[in-house]
Amino acid sequence: MEITNYVVLACILFAIGATTVLLRRNAIVVFMGVELMLNATNLAFVTFARIHGDLTGQVLAFFVMVVAAAEVVVGLAIIVTIFRTRRSASVDDVNLLHG
Amino acid sequence: MTPDMAAMTTTDGEAFLFWVLAPLMVLAALGLLFVRRAVHAALCLVFVMVSLAIMYIASGAPFLGVVQVVVYTGAVMMLFLFVLMLVGVDASDSLTETIRGQRWIGLLLGLGLAVVLIGVVSRATFLPGTPLTENQVANPVGLARILFGDYVLAMETVGVLLVTAAMGALVLTHRRRLETKRTQRWVAEQRVKALAEGGTLTPLPAPGVYAQSNAMDTPALGPDGRPLEHSVSRVLRIRGQEKAAPASLVETRSAGQVSTVPAATPDGGEDS
Question: Model confidence over B108-154: pLDDT tens digits?
Fold first, then answer.
């Protein structure tokens, strides 16, 4: 099996994550789509590290994981705050904020 | 097999693992797109992440595989489930479209992105590189050398980022108490104040006609034999689930004596 199949899988997962972000209304599910995209890039990083025999790709994947963890913490805190004031986790309602 | 070829192909066992896992992963990822409930979407994502960890371990990144399980499925997804619990497990999507045609445009854009990415990857020729040596795969020491050698500044910055994120979460979810706390003294003083407008000092009478039924939804009878409407819980009254007091009891007791006691006002001080 070609190793590049892993990269193709990463592309498919990334596209599905992007579509999730575009289509879903629930802010938490949209966030999960972002996580899926980050995971897909990680898979691509690990595969490229394997192809080139260089561990730097794995280091970058590690950084992506750490930054994603920080992003999730802040993002979920924002969602909880919005839910508390608006009683809804739908992304459609957030545009009322600027009123 | 030449070393160049060895870098670009996998063993048969790994190919089997890939062809078993990859379709399941794509299915689970599609579940994220089509499943109605947010909890089910979270479970689909957990499956994708665990499968990714297995793939990392298979392709020579055991450290990342472990970190994937610990950080992503262990911490991040549990945080997601925790927030779902706070927001309400039933938080499912509304299916009404606010932007017309958003669904089709979104699907088209996603498909286009997939086609472009896969097209680029499948047409690209990768330079034949050197595969990871056994030593590089087996221990995370090489990873640590790069992490704390070339990328030490980035590592420090990431540490600062994590502390800032924790602080940010604390600040965002902290809520100041806007109204004063309801203490026992406050409740007592409110009742005394409400007395002038026809409130009651004492707690409201308990519901239920004890001789025949002691259910919450039947009003108690006053000393004059009339049912006391406000002895039934306000919620039951509003929802219309209140039952009438047993007719026989009301008639016999109110027929015997002429009532002089005025019925208590129904909207007296609410028992809290």
Answer: 999 999 999 999 988 887 777 677 776 666 678 888 888 898 899 99
User: What's the pLDDT at B46?
Assistant: 94
Give domain limits for chain A.
Answer: 4-90
What's the gap in Å between the CA of A13 and the closest CA on chain B? 7
SS (H, E, C) B146-181: HHHHCCHHHHHHHHHHHHHHHHHHHHHHCCCCCCCC
Which of A2, A8, A9, A78 to mutate against chain B (most B CBs within 10 Å)? A9
What's the one-letter identity of residue B241?
Q
For B48, name the nearest residue in chain A, comparing CA atoms only: A36
CATH number of A4-90: 1.10.287.3510
Q: Do A35 and B45 touch (CB under 8 A)?
A: yes
A86/B contact by beta carbon, under 8 A: no
Collect all residues with Cβ–Cβ distance below 8 Å to B124 and sequence separation of at least 6.
none
- At B92-107, the pLDDT tens digits run 556 566 677 788 888 9
